[in-house]
UniProtKB/TrEMBL annotation:
One annotated GO biological process: RNA modification
Taxonomic path: Eukaryota, Viridiplantae, Streptophyta, Embryophyta, Tracheophyta
Record organism: Musa acuminata subsp. malaccensis
Descriptive protein name: DYW domain-containing protein
Pfam families (alphabetical): DYW_deaminase, E_motif, Eplus_motif, PPR, PPR_2
Domain DYW: 563-655
GO MF annotations in UniProt: RNA binding; zinc ion binding
Keyword terms of this UniProt record: Repeat
Signal peptide: none
Intervals holding PPR repeats: 115-149, 247-281, 348-382, 383-418
Length: 655
DNA sequence: CTAGGGTTAG
């Protein structure tokens, strides 16, 4: 600790008015330094008002002035808890909460401990700036220093646990509350409900919620959020519908719930409803809406949302711009994505990664790598997600050596630890390039046990290259990990079908039936004139169904003239050949295409999206249709875009 | 004072 530079008795004297006035009107660091010198000469200890003012100014946000403020504090005659607390409070209310944490770190290193008044301030700052682990650490420190946490602290710390999905710590806090016989008020109850619903423990959350009366807005929102996260969107909706006073936060929770449960259409519908009721969205709502648009891949809707964003002043917010880049990529408009990207002056790691992902999705591996190089030259540090996108870009473009190099570089140059997803991408990359043995060895060299994603990548590669033997082995491993993995059964039977091993196909199918494993239902949608039309397989729900089926017949006949013949090999159901033919011709994307052909002209492009991967037959069908009907067909499947033009697909038939 | 909703990948 530094020695005091002033006489302690000086603290008792009132500050001189002129000095006080100078403190209150100071606006720059040099100004403060002058005053500080004067204070030191005068022998008065007025560090507290001095610091309050200094720390309350926006200039305290810069590291150098923060540094100065802290040194004043630490060198003041009596750097005590109260002063430290005042400084921290001033700092936390005026600036980025992170500075409060920085300040706290410096105070600690200088030997100053926090008192019971400082803990809430720093804890809140930690929670607000997303430093949840630090918040938990502070909570432990606080308890061991004998300070009794009050409701405010407990609610804050529960929120930190909820956000980090840390049920262990959160549960401990809950026990602590029960053991210390603290009465649980509405605020704490909501915090607890939020903890359990964030962690997916809906039974516990529901029990606590049932005990609540009347139901409060915050607790109900937490319930909506929790059920939506688990995919129980109908339950979430019924709670939402029962809420009488809805505010922006609960609208947003419900909208993002739909957006993330693959119901982007519902998300947008709800957004419209909210809009009509006059509830003004904020940036968080807009992020969900943009993300819903992205998942839907609806270009007209996307344009509308973009205009809405511009009109309502959200367009300068970086996270919004990032979401827009992603949205346009996923809607098939790489050009628009690129424009926003180029017009974004300050780019963070998400901006760059979104652009890389955009190129990757469209199979443009070289551009993805170029964006990465640019990012590095701009000094932006890539994260784990960036590398997933890069590997994925290499994989879809067949850039094997580049992929290997990037994987190594991730570890060596960027000191990032590859996770399951990264290994999965590498396996995919090697597998696609027919390096199946190397892919298997790669899996065996992993430092941790491979999961279903990693095995699934290899199984997919076995399907592409028709490796029955390895496919069987991999499927077995995969089913050991997850006996109900629908993808494993489907891929395995596809592998058998490709090898014409019908007995085995039947066996896999029976196994699925006995276990009750259901293949995810495929559906497609197409946007025409701002309207989204959805199709299931064999769907006759569309009002123009007759017209669509008539068109489909016509299309099939024309394609058969140029050599198309339905590839029934992958039909899993045991049917007569004629029925198989019918089944495959009624796949949802073919229905969507038929409608698209009716409502578009030669030379235009047709955009279709699908929730699962496109089948072999539909892929061939689209290629031929693009040539015969002179349309560019853009099909987005679960992971990537296929651009069909003049009978060729951009994916090079590996997908 | 404190509690509820968010962007890149999988």
């Amino acid at each position: 600790m530094e020695t005091a530079t002033l006489q302690p008795l000086a603290a008792a004297l009132p500050p001189s008015p002129s000095l006080n006035h100078r403190i209150l009107t100071a606006t720059t660091v040099p100004h403060f330094k002058q005053i500080h010198a004067q204070i030191l000469r005068s022998g008065l200890d007025i560090s507290a008002p001095f610091l309050s003012r200094l720390l309350a100014l926006p200039l305290a946000s810069s590291p150098s002035s923060l540094d100065y403020a802290l040194s004043v504090l630490l060198h003041s005659p009596s750097p005590d808890f109260r002063l430290a607390n005042r400084a921290l409070r001033a700092l936390s209310s005026a600036t980025d909460p992170r500075w409060t944490l920085v300040a706290y770190g410096r105070l600690r290193r200088a030997g100053l401990a926090l008192d019971r008044f400082s803990f809430p301030t720093v804890l809140r700052a930690a929670a607000r700036s997303g430093c949840y682990n630090e918040a938990l650490q502070l909570f432990d420190e606080m308890k061991s220093s004998g300070v009794i946490p009050d409701r405010v602290i407990l609610a804050t710390i529960l929120s930190a646990c909820a956000r980090t999905r840390n049920l262990t710590s959160g549960g401990a806090v809950h026990s602590y509350i029960v053991e210390s016989n603290l009465s649980i008020d509405a605020h704490l109850q909501s915090a607890l409900i939020s903890l359990y619903s964030s962690c997916g423990s809906m039974d516990t959350a529901q029990r606590l919620y049932d005990d609540t009366s009347p139901k409060n807005l915050v607790a109900s929102t937490a319930m909506v959020f929790g059920y939506a996260k688990l995919g129980k969107i109908a339950v979430a909706r019924s709670i939402f519908d029962q809420m009488t006073d809805k505010d922006l936060v609960c609208w947003s929770a419900m909208i993002s719930g739909y957006a993330e449960s693959d119901q982007p259409n519902e998300a947008l519908k709800l957004f419209n409803e909210m809009h009509l009721l006059g509830v003004k969205p904020d940036q968080i709502t807009m992020l969900s809406v943009i993300s819903a648009c992205a998942n839907m891949g609806a270009r007209d809707q996307a344009k509308w949302v973009h205009i809405f964003v511009d009109k309502n002043g959200f367009h300068q917010i970086l996270s919004i711009r990032n979401a827009l880049i992603d949205m346009y990529s996923k809607c098939g408009s790489l050009v628009d994505a690129r424009t926003i990207f180029d017009e974004t002056a300050f780019k963070d790691v998400i901006t760059w990664t979104s652009m890389i992902t955009g190129f990757a999705m469209h199979g443009n591996g070289r551009s993805a790598l170029a964006v990465f190089d640019h990012m590095i030259s701009e000094g932006v540090k890539p994260n784990g997600v960036t590398f997933i996108s890069l590997l994925y870009a290499c994989s879809h473009a067949g850039l094997v050596d580049e992929g290997r190099r990037i994987f190594e570089s991730m570890i060596q140059d960027y000191r990032l630890e590859p996770k399951h997803e990264h290994y999965g991408c590498m396996v995919d990359l090697l597998g696609r390039a027919r390096l199946l043995q190397e892919a298997l060895e790669f899996i065996e060299s992993m430092p941790f046990a491979p999961n279903v994603v990693v095995w699934g990548s290899l199984l997919g590669a076995c399907r592409i290259h028709g490796d029955v033997k390895l496919g069987e082995l991999v499927a077995r491993r995969l089913l050991e990990l997850d006996p109900n993995h629908d993808g494993a059964y489907v891929l395995l039977s596809n592998i058998y079908a490709k090898a014409s091993r019908w007995e085995d196909v039947r066996e896999v199918r029976n196994l699925m039936k006995n276990k009750g494993v259901i293949k995810e239902a495929g559906f497609s949608w197409i946007e025409l004139n701002g309207h989204v039309h959805e199709f299931m397989m064999r769907d006759k729900c569309h009002p123009r169904s007759n017209e669509i089926y008539g068109k489909l017949d016509e299309v099939v006949k024309e394609l058969e003239l140029v050599g198309y013949s339905p590839d029934t090999a992958t039909v899993l159901v045991d049917l007569q050949e004629e029925e198989k033919r019918e089944a495959i011709l009624l796949h949802s994307e073919k229905l969507a295409l038929s409608l698209g052909l009716i409502d578009s002209k030669k030379g235009s492009s047709i955009h279709i999206a699908k929730n699962i991967r496109v089948c072999n037959d539909c892929h061939t069908f689209m290629k031929l249709a693009s040539k015969v009907f002179e349309r560019e067909i853009v099909l987005r499947d679960r992971t990537r875009f296929h651009h069909y033009k003049d009978g060729v697909c951009s994916c090079g038939d590996f997908w």
